[in-house]
């Protein structure tokens, strides 16, 4: 199947049909509204910090492993290609992809789990909601508003999951979690492409690290046929190039299936506009049943063989200790934080009590890079370290 530019679909998001921004601004002129979203995301501090946040391997472990930033760029590349082939809004897809992990904690999912545990009963913590919080409130770059003032459609695309109670607090951007319905096709697409990127680069990094092996990967229903295909076509290829060929084909076969299946679903449903997409009973973007099984098989394999490997488990344990230790100390004594987060903690407590103070502490920790979190932990708990 050749990937090509498909004319825009009537159910794709358009700038003229956008629900706009929370704070009115003049049109950006030479850019579209969604291009301005993308540019604001790229230039914000939270985006730069992704360079030093864990994907699977902590940032300082090796220079070639993926970070949250390289993961984000890979999601964007896969999603742009898919959007072009499906006739969706490429600029919106790119904006959602580039912003989708802005709220992630240091140490990847280990950091999120630790912070979510400490925030239980204090308002909770979930990194997708935190990404929305970053672009709505925490970035302080503009004279007349907090946050990045992104379009409704970009903001909506950041929310993958949300409790009804939390959704009611977030307002219209989370209304589908209260009343039911789907997000835009562009948001659905980024969600699936996130999984494609995640699995493929974790296979690559896992093999590079030696925590998983080629024979183990051959056992999976997705990778087994691809290794056989590459080894048949190139019988004398060295292992490193073989892995690159397999990972490249692994991405391609999933993208081709995603485009083919999604196009068929959209054609069958024939939504007249974005609102018809929102009212549809289920997602219109997704894999075929066979590819969905193979994709899930690979996820299960990575969970058992890579994410639960004893060396990863050791780093997870240390990550929990750092995040939990920082949270407990800073919640107990906000004066240990620098001026800005300390003042935010005092303001939050004045408005909402202990949950308000906890939210400011969570914001401070979630914004840390791996390296900064480790340094802060040392400064707080090791007497020999300078404060």
UniProtKB/TrEMBL annotation:
SUPFAM superfamilies xref list: HD-domain/PDEase-like (SSF109604)
Spans annotated as Disordered: 1-36
Name of a matching Pfam family: HD_assoc
KW DNA repair (keyword) present: no
Record key words, sorted: Hydrolase
GO molecular function, one term: dGTPase activity
Segments of skewed composition (Basic and acidic residues): 22-36
Domain of life (superkingdom): Bacteria
Domain HD: 68-199
Alphabetical list of InterPro entries matching this protein: dGTPase (IPR006261), dGTPase-like (IPR050135), dNTPase_2 (IPR023023), HD/PDEase_dom (IPR003607), HD_domain (IPR006674), PHydrolase_assoc_dom (IPR026875)
Gene Ontology annotations of biological process type: dGTP catabolic process
Keyword Hydrolase: yes
Family matches, as HAMAP family: dGTPase_type2
Family: Belongs to the dGTPase family. Type 2 subfamily.
Name listed for the protein in its UniProt record: Deoxyguanosinetriphosphate triphosphohydrolase-like protein
